Every structure is written in structure tokens, then in C-alpha cells.
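Field log, afternoon session.

UNIT: design team B
ACTIVITY: writing a sequence onto a fixed backbone
BACKBONE:
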């Protein structure tokens, strides 16, 4: 009987690995195999001499000369600033929304608002950028300018041609698109907290705020820490789809980030060695941020990714 039970467990586990296989293959193909192409950063790469660049001359760290040039640190600083602002405003938004969802007692209404909050995640940045440009347009069809002009007699503003408004657009659109989807992990973590703990706290006279402070928050610390580690890894990069679709020819030079710089120099201008070197440097810094944040979180609360 024991042997039969063991074989059934083996079959069940094997089925799980079958479902996991596509994700593993995609991770291998798009996550690990491209790492071998980092050799291009140390070559004077010429695609005509072979796709893998093995016949291209080795130039050492010549392609990393951008690290000695001041213009790159301007782009790097802007990248960190945009990412940090998005982290400060966007990262807590999912946690706050999850806490609000958790306090809803009408289950049907709770499911409806949760579903509505998820929908923007499935809208492409191409569509969102079109909506943003329409909403913020300086022309007569600009909804925001029409409202401000007619109700408050304010002058019309070219929001999408002025770089000082670009950061606000990034933050607002990023939160709108991702906040609902970001609540899924927090809601899953909240579902693991035993309801009896809340009942015992209520018997002891704890109010709603006390239960959130002493039960809900501690229960979310592991999930919060893991998400923070991965979020810090993205501090040295921006959302390329968002940046690429929201920027325009007027803004490009003044809102340029590392991701946009890599794209326009590598894909558009064909400077493969330079763009690979920039991407490699970006990846190394991101790895350091992940490892550093993981070390700090493990020291503070014993939670880490390894």
C-alpha cells in the first residue's frame, strides 16, 4: 500500500513539472542564453563577421569609455530619479489597496472592485499612451485642458511637450496600470492569516486599526520584503514600454534614460558593442542592488530570496 501511494505522488509531481516546463524553457531562452552575448561588450562587433561575433576583434574595456563621460551620468541620474519616484509612490500603492480590499465585507462588491482594478494591467502601453496624449492634448480635444479652461479659466498647457510634467505622467500611469495587479500577492498573503487571530484580538478589545497594525502588517512583512528586493533591482532601469511610448521627439533628449539610450544606439543606430556594454553595466549594478537589499532584509527580519 505504501508503494502504491508513493507512485501516485510521483505521478502528481511529474504532472506539475510538465506545467512548469514552458516557463523554464522561456526563462532559459530569453533569460540565460542571451547572457552569452555579453561578450559583444568587449569586442568591436561586426555582424558581417558572424552572428556570435567570434571573428570580431577583441578591444577589452574600450566600449566602457562612457563611464568616464559626464553625459552618461546625467542619463544615469535621470534613470535612478524616475525609478525611485515610481518606487516611492507606486510600491506602497498596491499594499494600501490590498489593505482596503481586505477591509471590505461585502464579498460580491469586493470581487467586482478587485476585477476592475486588474483590468488596466491587460491594456498595452501603446493604448495607454494614446489615451494619455488625447487626455492631455493642447488642442481642442484635450479633455484636461478643456476642463481647466472652462471651469477654472486657466491657460492651456502643452503637458506632453514640457519635460517638467513627464515624471508626474510616468507615476500616475504606472500606478493606474499596475496597482491592481500588484495587490494579488498581498491578497494571497492576507488569505494565509488565520481568522482566529483576528477574532481573539477582537475579544481582547482590539479595534480595526490595532488589528491592522499588530496582525495584518506583520503578516505581510515577508511578502513586502521579497517584493522590495525585486523592486530595488529595478531601481537602475525604467519600464521601457512605458518610456518609449510616452516620450516623443520634443521630449526625447530631456527625458532620456539608460533603457532608451541603449535602444536608440543599439537597435536604431547599430552600435551593438556600445549598447551591450551599457546594458551589461546596468545589469551588474542591478544585481548589486538585489544582493544588497536581500542582505539588509535578512538582517532586519530574516526574510530573503535565498
Amino acid at each position: 500500500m505504501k508503494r502504491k501511494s508513493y507512485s501516485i505522488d510521483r505521478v502528481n509531481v511529474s504532472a506539475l513539472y510538465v506545467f512548469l516546463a514552458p516557463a523554464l524553457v522561456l526563462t532559459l531562452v530569453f533569460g540565460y542564453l542571451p547572457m552569452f552575448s555579453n561578450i559583444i561588450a568587449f569586442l568591436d562587433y561586426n555582424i558581417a563577421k558572424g552572428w556570435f561575433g567570434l571573428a570580431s576583434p577583441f578591444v577589452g574595456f574600450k566600449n566602457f569609455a562612457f563611464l568616464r563621460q559626464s553625459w552618461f551620468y546625467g542619463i544615469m541620474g535621470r534613470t535612478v530619479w524616475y525609478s525611485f519616484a515610481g518606487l516611492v509612490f507606486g510600491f506602497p500603492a498596491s499594499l494600501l489597496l490590498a489593505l482596503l480590499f481586505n477591509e471590505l465585507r461585502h464579498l460580491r462588491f469586493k470581487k467586482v472592485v478587485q476585477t476592475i482594478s486588474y483590468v488596466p494591467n491587460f491594456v498595452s502601453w501603446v493604448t495607454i499612451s494614446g489615451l494619455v496624449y488625447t487626455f492631455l492634448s493642447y488642442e481642442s480635444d484635450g479633455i484636461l485642458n478643456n476642463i481647466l479652461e472652462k471651469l477654472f479659466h486657466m491657460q492651456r498647457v502643452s503637458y506632453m511637450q514640457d519635460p517638467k510634467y513627464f515624471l508626474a505622467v510616468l507615476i500616475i500611469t504606472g500606478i493606474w496600470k499596475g496597482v491592481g495587479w500588484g495587490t494579488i500577492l498581498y491578497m494571497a498573503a492576507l488569505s494565509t492569516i488565520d481568522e482566529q487571530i483576528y477574532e481573539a484580538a477582537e475579544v481582547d478589545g482590539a479595534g480595526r486599526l490595532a488589528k491592522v497594525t499588530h496582525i495584518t502588517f506583520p503578516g505581510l512583512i515577508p511578502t513586502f520584503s521579497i517584493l522590495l528586493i525585486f523592486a530595488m533591482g529595478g531601481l537602475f532601469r525604467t519600464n521601457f514600454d512605458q518610456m518609449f511610448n510616452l516620450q516623443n521627439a520634443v521630449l526625447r533628449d530631456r527625458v532620456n534614460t539608460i533603457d532608451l539610450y541603449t535602444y536608440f544606439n543599439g537597435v536604431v543606430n547599430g552600435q551593438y558593442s556600445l549598447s551591450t556594454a551599457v546594458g551589461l553595466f546596468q545589469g551588474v549594478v542591478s544585481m548589486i542592488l538585489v544582493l544588497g537589499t536581500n542582505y539588509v532584509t535578512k538582517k532586519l527580519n530574516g526574510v530573503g530570496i535565498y
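LOG NOTE: The radius of gyration is 24 Å.
NEXT ACTIVITY: expression trials, pending approval
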